[in-house]
Amino acid sequence: MSDSTSGYPAFRRRLDDVLRQRDPAALRAFLIAEGQWTPETATDPEAAMWMMIATSPALANLRDEARQWLMAHGHAAEAQAIFGAQHSADKAPHRGGRPPGRGSSNTPPKGSFGKMSRPDKGRDNRRPRE
């Protein structure tokens, strides 16, 4: 970073200021100046810019525009990773590891009861005697 005493919060504010411009060349120049990218960095600055906008809490007002850009420019997988699966406007997205109403996370999968790990036949898994 150009000013190591300012720390991450100050860097993030400067980055958000650059992202608000929606100018990939300005973002690239900023990240190179800050030592985050090198001039040889092969990352697509426009795609990176929209992904950064999409994930910035300070730029929540630009999230819909970011999602639309990502979807329209071949970055559907990234958009889905950032925004989640499509959901209706009246229903909040699910944020857990299991779909709603599918039991507790402590419940083992079906068919796992009573199955114990068995040693391979023909192998003696006992410790050698001393």
Q: What features would you highlight for this structure?
A:
41% helix, mainly alpha, 5 helices, 130 residues
Task: Explain the overall architecture.
The protein has a domain at 7-83. Helix 2 crosses helix 3 (45-55) and helix 4 runs antiparallel to helix 5. By secondary structure, the protein is mainly alpha-helical. It is extended. The protein is built from 5 helices and no strands. Residues 87-94 and 112-117 have low confidence and may be disordered. The chain has helices spanning 7-20, 24-33, 45-55, 63-72, 76-83.
Outline the secondary-structure elements.
Layout: H1 7-20, H2 24-33, H3 45-55, H4 63-72, H5 76-83
Short characterization:
The protein is mainly alpha-helical and 130 residues long. The chain has helices at 7-20, 24-33, 45-55, 63-72, 76-83.
Could you give the count of β-strands? 0
**How far apart are the termini?**
60 Å
| Weakly predicted, low-confidence segments | 87-94, 112-117
β-strand percent reads: under 5%
- Rg, rounded, reads 24 Å
Counted by DSSP, the helix tally is: 5
Helicity range: 40-55%
The description of the largest β-sheet is: none
Secondary structure class reads mainly alpha
- Overall 3D form: extended
Instruction: Tell me, rounded to a whole number, the average pLDDT.
Output: 79
Q: Would you list the SSEs in sequence order as H and E?
A: HHHHH
